[in-house]
Amino acid sequence: MVSDNVLTIVPLALSSTYSRSTTKYMQQGGKRLTQIDNSIPKVTIVCVTFNAEATLERLLKSVGKYKTDAIELVLLDGNSVDGTLGIIKDHEDIIDFWRSEPDNGIYDAMNKAVDHIKGEWVIFLGADDELAAGFPAMLERLKNPDTVYYGNVIFYGKEFSKVYDDYYLTKLNICHQGIFYPKVVFDRYCYETKYRVYADYHLNLRLWKDKAFKFVHCNLLVARFAGDGFSMHTKDLVFEAERDKLFKRYLKPASYYRYLNRTIGTVGTFKRLVTGQ
Q1: Which CATH superfamily is domain 8-229 in?
Q2: In angstroms, rounded to a whole number, what is the distance separating the alpha carbons of residues 64 and 75?
Q3: Which terminus of the chain faces fewer neighbouring Cβ atoms within 10 Å, N or C?
Q4: Over the stretch 230-260, which tens digit does the pLDDT of each residue have?
């Protein structure tokens, strides 16, 4: 049923596999449901939330500082049971589209969010992240639709500005709070939800290998990354079990064997090289 205001509530038939909430309703709202606008924004900011009342308002205020018609905000909530929905509704003046419904975790919600974006590029933020002063300037750098642009982030209180190469990607993932993906990426790829924590790492590895795309670093501070979020406290056992295989598949052999030398030593690396592992 669609009401006269921005809120839509739709009954859902729930599966027992949902890991977050058992609420039986989907709710949605945002400016898009009440205003006709056929323009294409430059960037869509996607935020996925679950019981985020402690931090969400800070994120929304940081987005509000830079919100223009060139910036779209799409928010997907996993049926929060705290005050998250109230905060979302209080900020509908800057939210283009939001929906709250059961999901199967962060990356399932991100995949769902992609169906609702209109921007030429997309950046994914957590409810405990914030935009930084370099964000508007970053939008001016987004020009080539075959390019994944990434900027700097505040990470554990310090600005992280590493320019990645093939080998460094074996040490640390590119922080998703600093990445601007061209929308066409999600015409070809989605997040593999079997990776509970590092589905974004897996996506970046695939894109690094894909000759249709290139990565370009911009020396601009675009976001502040909360260092105590989900990924800091949760293990991704599937990714860890497949890490070696993924690096071998998506990175150059020299980087892969250098990574092995760093992690299992010269003898172990030699054995892998001889056996072709």
Answers
A1: Spore Coat Polysaccharide Biosynthesis Protein SpsA; Chain A (3.90.550.10)
A2: 14
A3: N
A4: 555 689 999 999 999 999 999 999 999 999 9
